[in-house]
Write a structure and sequence with these properties.
Elements lengths: L1 H8 L5 H19 L2 E4 L1 H16 L11 E5 L26 H8 L3 E6 L33 H8 L6 E4 L6 H7 L2 E4 L20 E5 L2 H11 L29 E5 L9 H16 L3 E5 L5 H18 L1 H6 L6 H10 L4 H23 L4 E5 L20 H6 L5 H6 L3 E8 L5 E8 L4 H13 L11
Parallel strand pairs: 2-3, 7-8, 7-9
Antiparallel strand pairs: 1-3, 4-6, 5-6, 5-10, 9-11, 10-11
Organism: Dankookia rubra
Protein name: Amidase
InterPro entries: Amidase, Amidase_CS, Amidase_dom, AS_sf
Length: 461
């Protein structure tokens, strides 16, 4: 994304050429991947032509000008259908545009349309009974991760330079790791959620799936910041995230939790993770094994809150048209109505104390926590299809075991590619920091990518 935008700014490539290259790639390959829901071909070409005319007279319309993008089909654009991956909203046409889309527009990003996703963003694998499953570009039989399935697969397949995803239990970082790209979940409240389909009032996050940490830094700098339309958005000033990418991690302190994140991890994942830690140590970081407080309650609370809040959001449709949901989703939502109110209130009340405990016991004396993003090798679509076989439920839920805790704790977290397993599928490294320490998280991820090439490897398709 940054390379494309910078080349356009220097006059080395036309915006129209970038868009046409994206369109050609989609036309040739999306029949296999099934990442695209709506392609706004003519609108994208018109936007590119406007930018090329501006560039011809010496004007560069923003730091993302020239960069073709597509976004998860849950970001509202006035007058355009947003299905949210569902049958219920197959004709929903919002009247207002999401704040993040407005900010991307103002920065010159070229919006080419919308992308496949899990139904109402409620599964970690990317299955979709209404639009069809999205397929992993590295091997079409395997999961993309979810719920931002089209975003991860499309960036990996080089259909476009960047995509918005959303992350309530890992839905940016999971497609990032399963598809071999970079995904950033910022601090809870760092980015406005106005005009975005809600899943969970207290755990939803907006963020990018991109190729590099530098891409993520520039993207976040555009979309972050206070928004009057979202009263939960944080007032903290937005720093220059890209300027913080010094490539230097000398003396940076990284904690590796001895328990939970590596429990039951597959050998190829551990091998790639340990190699990534060794690379960071060689670059000057200090890596230390620590004993973390139990995160099982944290992971359970995350699942609980999203289920209860999701059930509240969907109450009307669940009463009026429950048959329009996929089987696994209606089961999940009905389960939310059975959770006692005191347990939900307990989850909300415990969030602050558990965050303070985690910071005090795990991050005191450290800058970051490092984990594998996914403990297991990438599963196949068949292995995680719970509508076809409910016995797949444990494997389905295990996908998000390492990402969910950071949603409940609200911490900034990134996933970057760090290798491949024995079947040739990607492995991800997850780095998490203190609240609003995105600059530190991005600096470490960028430094790692400066001395590795995992993020530059492309699937053959």
């Amino acid at each position: 994304m940054t390379e494309a935008a910078d080349a356009f700014a220097r006059g080395e490539v036309a915006a129209e050429a970038l868009v046409r290259a994206s369109l050609a790639r989609i036309a040739a390959q999306d029949g296999k991947v099934n990442a695209v829901v709506r392609l706004d071909r003519e609108a994208a070409l018109e936007a590119a032509a406007v930018q090329d005319k501006a560039r011809a007279v010496g004007t560069v319309p923003g730091p993302l000008a020239g960069a073709p993008m597509m976004h998860k089909d849950m970001y509202y654009r006035a007058g355009k259908v947003s299905t949210c991956g569902s049958a219920i909203r197959k004709e929903f046409t919002p009247k207002a545009t999401a704040t993040v889309l407005q900010r991307l527009d103002a920065a010159g990003a070229i919006d080419m349309g919308t992308l496949n996703m899990a139904e109402f963003a409620q599964n970690p694998t990317g299955h979709n009974a209404h639009h069809g499953d999205c397929h992993n570009p590295w091997n079409l039989d395997y999961c993309t991760g979810g719920s931002s399935s089209g975003s991860g697969a499309g960036v990996a397949a080089r259909f476009f330079t960047a995509a918005l995803g959303s992350d309530t239990g890992g839905s940016i970082r999971l497609p990032a790791t399963l598809c071999g790209v970079t995904g950033l979940k910022a601090t809870q409240t760092r980015v406005s959620r106005a005009g975005v389909m809600p899943l969970s009032f207290s755990a939803d996050n907006v963020g990018p799936l991109v190729r590099t940490a530098r891409d993520a830094a520039r993207f976040l700098g555009v979309i972050a910041g206070r928004d009057p339309k979202d009263p939960t958005s944080a007032p903290e000033p937005v720093p220059d995230y890209e300027a913080a990418l010094t490539g230097d991690v000398q003396g940076m302190r990284i904690a590796v939790c001895e328990s939970y994140f590596l429990d039951g991890a597959d050998a190829p994942v551990v091998t790639a993770f340990e190699a990534a830690l060794a690379t960071l140590k060689s670059a000057g970081a200090e890596v230390t094994r620590v004993k973390a407080p139990s995160l099982r309650a944290v992971a359970a609370y995350t699942a609980l809150v999203s289920r209860v809040e999701g059930a509240a959001i969907h109450a009307h449709w669940m009463r009026e048209q429950p048959g329009d949901y996929a089987t696994h989703l209606s089961a999940r939502l009905f389960g939310g109505y059975a959770v006692p109110a005191h347990l939900y209130v307990e989850e909300l009340a415990r969030r602050g104390p558990l965050l303070r405990e985690f910071v005090a016991e795990t991050l005191t004396g450290f800058d970051l926590v490092a984990t594998p993003t996914l403990r297991t090798r990438v599963p196949t679509l068949a292995e995680t299809d719970i509508d076809a076989d409910p016995a797949n439920w444990s494997r389905f839920m295990a996908v998000s075991a390492n990402t969910r805790p950071f949603n409940y704790l609200g911490l900034p977290t990134i996933s970057v590619p760090c290798g491949f397993d024995d079947r040739g599928l990607p492995v991800g490294l997850q780095l998490a920091g203190r609240p609003f320490a995105e600059s530190t998280v991005l600096r470490a991820a960028d430094a790692y990518q400066q001395v590795t090439d995992w993020h530059r490897r492309a699937p053959a398709l």
